[in-house]
């Protein structure tokens, strides 16, 4: 598959097979992030891999899924992520003010690499940072930006051209539809 095909195929996944992801694959995803562009090449991002079931459950309790269709988009017991990656900013590395751009680029590297492995991902920004920082004992010199939920994909969301709403929705068969603005509407 070409990179373009993977980009078009990748969708946010919120239903996961209950199959462990090999640690080497999780490290490969971070290695993809490591090679992302970074403002002034300062590389302020750090990551925590969470894949022990007990901590994964604790983290799961502190994230919010799919607000537009709540609670329909929340993974059920046998659909939960099997791992998370926490995305952190190291405050001891000089700030450029472009950390969020660095994050976007690094996270997409993770997403595309995961997608090519059949692993579904969901970026989670609606999280209880205080609880997660305490669960993971994250030291004060890091900012917890977001989490990435991971697991082998167990759903196939459908991207479609946006007509009047950008809100994703589920059809009567339970498939998730994700409206994307039309090409002619975004090229000015
Ligand atoms: C910055 C950011 C924060 C997000 N936070 C959440 C979140 O907290 N919970 C969630 O279920 N999805 C979250 N998402 C996933 C979006 O809902 C998803 O990307 C969007 O619906 C488009 O779907 P797609 O990724 O399949 O193209 C987030 C995405 C981004 C880029």
Question: Helices, strands, pairings?
Answer:
Blueprint: H1 3-9, H2 23-34, E1 45-50, H3 53-60, E2 83-90, H4 99-116, E3 119-124, H5 129-136, E4 142-152, E5 158-161, E6 169-170, E7 176-180, H6 183-186
Parallel strand pairs: 5-7
Antiparallel strand pairs: 1-2, 2-4, 3-4, 6-7
Flavin mononucleotide binds at residues 11-12, 64-66, 122-126, 157, 168, 178.
Domain Nitroreductase: 7-152
InterPro entries: Nitroreductase, Nitroreductase-like, Put_nitroreductase_C_bac
Pfam families: Nitroreductase
- Which molecules other than protein and nucleic acid are bound? flavin mononucleotide
Q: How much beta, percentage-wise?
A: 15-25%
CATH class membership of the largest domain: Alpha Beta
User: How are helices and strands ordered from N to C?
Assistant: HHEHEHEHEEEEH
Strand segment count: 7
**Mean residue pLDDT:** 98
Kindly state the percentage of residues in helix: 25-40%
| Gross geometry | globular
InterPro entries: Nitroreductase, Nitroreductase-like, Put_nitroreductase_C_bac
GO molecular function, one term: oxidoreductase activity
Keywords: Oxidoreductase
Domain Nitroreductase: 7-152
Descriptive report:
The protein has 188 residues and is α+β, with helices and mostly antiparallel strands. The protein folds into two domains: 3-156, 3-Layer(aba) Sandwich (NADH Oxidase), CATH 3.40.109.10; 160-188, no CATH class. The chain contains six helices and seven strands. The chain has helices at 3-9, 23-34, 53-60, 99-116, 129-136, 183-186, and strands spanning 45-50, 83-90, 119-124, 142-152, 158-161, 169-170, 176-180. The strands form two sheets. Strands 1-2-4-3 form a four-stranded antiparallel sheet. A three-stranded mixed sheet has the order 5-7-6, with no helix packed on it. Strand 6 (169-170) and strand 7 (176-180) form a beta hairpin. The longest helix has 18 residues, at 99-116. The two termini are 30 Å apart. The mean pLDDT is 98. Flavin mononucleotide binds at residues 11-12, 64-66, 122-126, 157, 168, 178.
């Amino acid at each position: 598959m070409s990179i373009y095909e993977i980009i078009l195929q990748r969708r946010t996944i919120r239903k996961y097979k209950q199959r462990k992801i090999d640690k080497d694959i999780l490290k490969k995803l971070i290695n993809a992030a490591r090679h992302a562009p970074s403002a002034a090449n300062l590389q302020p991002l750090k990551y925590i891999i969470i894949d022990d079931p007990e901590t994964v459950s604790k983290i799961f309790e502190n994230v919010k899924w799919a607000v537009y269709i709540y609670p329909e988009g929340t993974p059920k017991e046998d659909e939960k992520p099997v791992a998370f990656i926490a995305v952190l900013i190291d405050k001891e590395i000089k700030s450029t003010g472009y950390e969020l751009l660095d994050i976007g680029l690094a996270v997409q590297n993770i997403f595309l690499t995961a997608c090519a492995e059949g692993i579904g991902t969901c970026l989670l920004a609606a999280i209880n940072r205080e609880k997660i920082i305490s669960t993971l004992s994250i030291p004060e010199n890091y900012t917890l930006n977001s989490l990435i939920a991971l697991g082998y994909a167990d759903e196939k969301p459908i991207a479609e051209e946006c007509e009047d709403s950008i809100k994703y929705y589920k059809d009567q068969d339970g498939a998730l539809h994700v409206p994307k603005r039309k090409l002619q509407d975004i090229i000015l």
